[in-house]
Amino acid sequence: MHLPWCVRKCPYCDFNSHAIKGGAGSELPEKKYVQALLADLDQDLGEPGVVVSSIFLGGGTPSLFSPSSIEALLTGIADRLQLTADAEITLEANPGTVEQSRFDGFHAAGVNRLSLGIQSFDDGKLKALGRIHDAGQCRAAIEAARAAGFDNLNLDLMFALPEQSVEQAIQDVRIALSFAPEHVSHYQLTLEPNTLFYAQPPALPDDDSAWDMQQGAGELLIGAGLHAYEISAWAQTGRECRHNLNYWRFGDYLGIGAGAHGKFTAGQRVTRTAKQRHPAAYMNQAAETGRIQHGRRLSRDDLVFEFMLNRLRLAEGWTPAQFTAATGVDPGAIRVCLDRAREMGLLEFDGGRWTRTALGGRFLNDLQGLFLPPEPVLAGGVGLP
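^ that's the sequence the OP posted. Answer follows.
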């Protein structure tokens, strides 16, 4: 579920997020938007009896919403579908928009996993990123989350920040680990189109420095007992983000909210859905009887590429049976691409499973690109396991 408002748009962000008119302290249309989300959900559910194992409240900055609005939303969801007994319910929060009472309220509302957008513990780097919080607020937010009872905590960290040294990047990870988080998302700053940083690029570390940052951080994370189950996600055993694992395993999900994307499968037919992006138009359309989404059925080539785009991010890799179940394609049809990836040292096949090598992890974009349409040429035939 996408809650698209932020206090201020960060210069690197290409998400569908919208700065609050009037800035911090301005009121959001919380009640109207929650009603729109539930109307959207009603449209998507169709058949009764839908079972859901995870809810992810992302943004934007969902923690701008009051605990009472989050409670109303989660209650409305529970009234409409069946949640598993151990459902993972995540809320993204910005350290600059929370206080102890709000964390208490989110936890009481049913949120059981919190994801804090720390990014850095360096005030200078936070300022360069356009963040609204400082390092002191980062620490205070983590402590407040623990005091509220959250025992499943993710800390978002970025590296290769403007003029960042290798030691500064590793120090951010060192500080994060001092709070013993169950999960750490550690990802490189990239310059995305339609962002301020793309139009006015800051001075970023070179590729070799960024690699040193990633490697040094990885050593610390492993030493702290976390494992890299995904290219940028580290977790204690059993604390992997189940919601994101479903994405990466090419599972189905409902996308609810302004600009939200979803995926559902019927037989071998896979459809991607997308909702109206602008919050005002979304709320107006949700109040009407018409649909507020459009869908796109994935072609055979699209299925192969999207499966690889997601699955290759995971350390666990994939089996031929999983590939065929998700795409309807025999692995032999992509023999040329698999052979090429193996010859380049990016993929390996062992124990009935394809996994990326260490080199494949370092050059993941190149590995994924081997499966881009019109490649692979999907021919009939078998030959690979």
